[in-house]
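Section 3.1: Structural characterization of target chains.
Under the original work plan, the team committed to producing a structural model for every single-chain target entering the pipeline before any wet-lab resources were allocated. The record below documents one such target. The sequence was received from the expression subgroup and is listed exactly as submitted; it comprises 260 residues.
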Amino acid sequence: MDLAGRVAIVTGSGKGMGPVIAESLAREGADLMLCGRDLPPLEKVCDSIRSLGRRAFVARCDVCSPAEVEAMVAHTLQALGGRIDILVNAAGGTGPVERSTIETAPDEFDAVVAVNMRGVYLTIRGVLPTMMAQRYGKIVNLGGTWGLRGRALRMAYSATKWGLRGITKSVALEAGPYNININDVCPGVVEGARVDNTFRIKSQRLGKTVDQVREESAAEYALRRFSTPHDVANVIVFLCSDKSRQITGQDIAVDGGWAM
């Protein structure tokens, strides 16, 4: 149990990869504060984690709201013994899919920047005072391989993931003297509802079947397969453990060999 006694916050823990990430941390001994905008999915994950014998609590939190982030951090400190050892920023938005820069509306651009960059900045800003005071912390941001290479028709999303790399590296330099590690995990295509929707939209644009789009996409990867949420969670757990004590400010692709 590498994370026994650690207190972790996972944003976006009710949907996408969030539940698997939160449960993986719990299986390694961490107690959890589960954050998101929709309470029912969070409650379900909370029940699952408590069944593992770990403490878990739920906080409704829009990461774009400074007040809600501050309240969530205060709730975590009050409920879980005054510590925050781990922050995983799994909350995120996809932005416009299969749309050119010209077709992307300004408000759509602003919306994905708000959640993918402002939200991460606010949660990091919220936990850093506690981590600095205890001289210990692990922060993992969920980036993406489209923040390592450009991607046509996903400009807004790609831009935010490039920006997330800047946040990660800058905070790593500021927080390093306080024994705080911060890294950026960059998944490629991850199996799940979001990618299914993306393939559906792409198939309509190209006039191909969804299976054809999937096969052509998989052929771009060295391992000829997509990642699973567990593949990503395994790397996050490692980065949240002391086995990764000398890794900080890094972008780590979990993509089966695309961003090389």
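The two ends are 33 Å apart (CA to CA).
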